[in-house]
Every structure is written in C-alpha cells, then in structure tokens.
Amino acid sequence: MKLASPAAVTALALAFGLAGSLPAAAGPAPLERAREAAEDTPFEGVLQVRWRDGAETRSERLTVAAASGALVVRGANQVMARPASVRLVSHRGGGWEELWRPSLTPAPRPDGSKYVTTEPVDGPRVAGRTSRVVELHHKGRLLERLYLDKETGLLLQRDQFDVSRTVVRSLAFESLKVGDPGAPLADPPATANHAPKAVAAERLGRSAVAPGTLGDGYERMGVYRDGSVVHVLYSDGVYDLSVFQQPGRLRRSDVPPSGERVVVGSATGWRYPWPGGQLVVWSSGGKVFTAVSDAPADQVLAAARSMPPTPTRELSLLGKVRRACEALMAPLR
Amino acid sequence: MSRKFGTGGFGASDGHLGDALSALLDGELPPNQETAARAHIAGCPTCSHELLAVTQARSWVRALPPVEPPFGLYERMLLERPQRISAVFDTRASIRRRAGVAAFGAAAAAVTVLGVASPSQPPVSPAVPRMVEAHATGASVGADLLSKLAPVGVPVSFGR
C-alpha cells in the first residue's frame, strides 16, 4: 500500500482541525516573528477584514503598505505607524491626528506563556504566497490559526475562532507584493496632538481603579488620562485589553440598541463586536466603564468581571433632596 | 404577601422600599434588585402609593422653570461703588437683616446645588470610536502592527 505524502498528511490534519495535536510550544513566538517581519519587510497589498456582527458577517477591504519601519493602512480611515511608537489616524480624508507618541510607550508585554502554539506546518497559498500554519490554543481550545509567509514570516492571514470553532474574525491578504514599494511612505503634514498623558497608577486616587492584574492573566502595561477619561492598558502577551473609565452613569438610551446584554458584577452591561474584537460597556459606582479588546469574547467578559467593585454608591435623587433638606433645617431645631 | 426587599442595604428598615423607589425610577438598581423591587411593589399598597407620589414629585421638580436673575443684576454688582455699598449698610439693624437674608440665600443655594441641581452623576455616552483608536494605537506598540492597527481603518459603527 502506498503511504500518503507528508504534505497530504498535513493538509488532512488541517482540514480536520487536528493540527493542535502536533508537537506544541509555550508562548507566541510566531507572532513575535510576524511583528519583526512587518517592521523589517517592505510590502504593499490589499487586506480583507471580516468580522461577525450578530448573525451577519461584515467585511471591508483595506490597502496596506510598509517600508523603513513605517506602515500605512488606508480605508475610510487611515492609520499610520511610524518608528518610535508614533501612531497617527486620519478620519475620512481629514487631517492627521497624533494619538500615540514615544513618551507613552507601555511596559513590556507578558510572555504569553498561558497559550500553546503548535509547530509550523505547510499551509495553503495565501495571496499567491506560500504559507506556514500555526495554531494558538488556550486550555485545550483552538483560539486562532495564523498563516505566515514562508519566506519572510509576514502574517498573511489570521483567523479567530469562537468556542464552536467558527471563525468570528479574520484578517487576510487578497494580494501582496513583497519588496520595495517604490515611492517612500510620505511623512504626514501638520498633525494635531490628541495623545493622552501618562499617569502613575498610584496617583489616580479615587478617580479610577487600575488593578495590576485582571482575570485570566492580563497585566497592566500603562495608565493614561485624556480629560476626564482614564485609560488603563492591559495585555496577556497575545491580546490587549483597554479599560476606559469616566465619571457618570449609563442609560440604555445612550448606547446603541444592537448590543448584547451581559452582566458585569452587579451591573448590567452591553457587548458589541468591532472590526478588531469586542467591547463591553457598563456602569458602576458613579463611573462608566468601556472595555475594548482584540481577545475572544469570553476573555473580555472575564477580565471586565474581575475589575474590583467601585467603593461608593451615589445617593438617589430622593436621598439627595432629603439630605439637603435636613442640612437646611438643622440650624432651626 | 409582598416579598421583603432591601437586603443589599437599599430599602427602609421597615421592610418597604424607601429610597430604593427613587433609585428604581432613575434606573440605578441592578437587574436582580430591580426585579425584586417590582415584585414587592406589585404586592405592597404602601410602596405602590409612595411610588406614585415620588413619580409625581419628580415631574413637578423637573417642570420647574429655571430662575433667571433680575435684569442688570450682574452689571449693578460690578459697577456699584464701595461708598454706596457702605451707605446701604449704615445701621446695625440693617446689617442683621441683610445677614439673615444672605444666610437664607446661601442655604437655598446649598439646597439647589446639593439636592436638585446634581441629583446623581450625569449620564454619559462613551466616545467609543475614539476609545477603540486609543486602544489599538497603544496596543500596537511592541506588537504585530498589521493585527493591531488594520481594524482601525474601518470606522466603528453599530448599526444604530
């Protein structure tokens, strides 16, 4: 009997989702190689972003170009990454706004050792390029399948799965040209500074809560303030999670009606998908919290639920009127 | 028989809802307490009547027109000469009367500020698109740029 070729065995393993049983290693080393490749390799291409929004799957096409450590994404919004952590955004053809600058560089990421990655195996061609496939698992569950360019290590496609192993979010090159893109990426003209300010977690006082760790291994990397909004950035080494806090309360009428109702601690919240992941909005103790992340939905909820309870509860309207009237009448007794 | 409410420190000690009624109307009760409160009201005439009264009182307070200062008050305060002010307060009786009026005015202002003008934290609508961008740009530092930044090329919308 003729034995199957190694390539056919690999293809079968992928087709039946058995790649997770191949030899595995701790930590997301393939993602680190993809990061280095995106910074070192000049390329340009068309990238398709797909994400599940309720029962519907939505998609958008973006053009991407990279050279000399800079990267530009062009869609309805434009995003630019420049060396030394400078990040700029332009909305619908408007001027460039600087949203991140070198002085805000967060603490180093955790090593992502809670995840297990499979050994790379030969994969299908993506955008005309030969790929190697790696899977990312957590507690025995397939979270992601990464298709990396065999020649450069560049990320060609990234699929994120839900618990039923259905793709809920995907980035995939439709076309890709590796090599010098020709004209250098233009420096943006004058930019408006909309970057937040870095603050020490110890100096937040009662204005916000910023625990050093959140559920499922998320570690705090930085704390920032933009006006009355405090932004705490966390990472588990693969996914990142931001918790935004601002004074106020949340009314159902102030959030889009399409959200899925969830429970966060003793509060009601709403969960929404965005092209890059999930976000959860809830209100507690006189503050409104918004958690934004590229992590799977269950991890985002677990992290949100691990936020410590806010200490004070505001008096209701009747309570405040009573308190004020008592204060007014006290001198007359 | 109605179910007792308030084990979480909200309701009054007599087994009725008390302040929790106002919190219920403001939508500030957690889901489980809201359900319990509504179940209690359904079987408790006292709380049912108080709920009606609180609802009516809230509508009266919110229907009050804003109080405008008399025309020219600020201009007169700024332009009044010191000697004219001292002439007004030229007797002890006048000083006591004016002090009483000032104290009452300060107390009324305190009631307005503490009790009515800021009944609770103001409602806010989070600037989600800006937060998504702040998250993605911050998270992209030291990470795979394509994975973290590309989604920001698509404007955030939730089909409102």
Radius of gyration of chain B: 27 Å
Strand content of chain A: over 45%
Largest interface: A-B, 94 and 62 residues
Helix content of chain B: 55-70%
CATH class of the largest domain in chain A: Mainly Beta
CATH topology of the largest domain in chain A: outer membrane lipoprotein receptor (LolB), chain A
Helix count of chain A equals: 4
Helix content of chain A: 10-25%
* Straight-line N-to-C gap of chain A: 104 Å
Query: What is the radius of gyration of chain A computed over CA atoms, rounded to a whole number of angstroms?
Result: 23 Å
Oligomer: heterodimer
Low-confidence stretches of chain A: 1-23
Region (Disordered) (chain A): 100-124
Keywords (chain A): Signal
Organism (chain A): uncultured Acidimicrobiales bacterium
InterPro entries (chain A): MucB/RseB_N (IPR033434)
Topology of this structure?
The complex is a heterodimer of chains A (333) and B (160).
Chain A: H1 6-15, E1 24-26, H2 29-40, E2 43-53, E3 56-67, E4 70-74, E5 77-82, E6 86-91, E7 96-100, E8 116-118, E9 121-126, E10 129-138, E11 141-149, E12 155-161, E13 167-178, E14 191-193, E15 197-198, E16 213-214, E17 218-226, E18 229-235, E19 240-247, E20 260-264, E21 267-274, E22 277-284, E23 287-293, H3 297-305, H4 317-329
Parallel strand pairs in A: 7-14
Antiparallel strand pairs in A: 1-8, 2-3, 2-13, 3-4, 4-5, 5-6, 6-7, 8-10, 9-10, 10-11, 11-12, 12-13, 15-17, 16-17, 17-18, 18-19, 19-23, 20-21, 21-22, 22-23
Chain B: H1 20-25, H2 31-43, H3 45-63, H4 73-79, H5 82-88, H6 92-117, H7 128-139, H8 145-149
Helix pairs in contact in B: 2-3
Keywords (chain A): Signal
Protein name (chain A): MucB/RseB N-terminal domain-containing protein
Signal peptide (chain A): 1-26
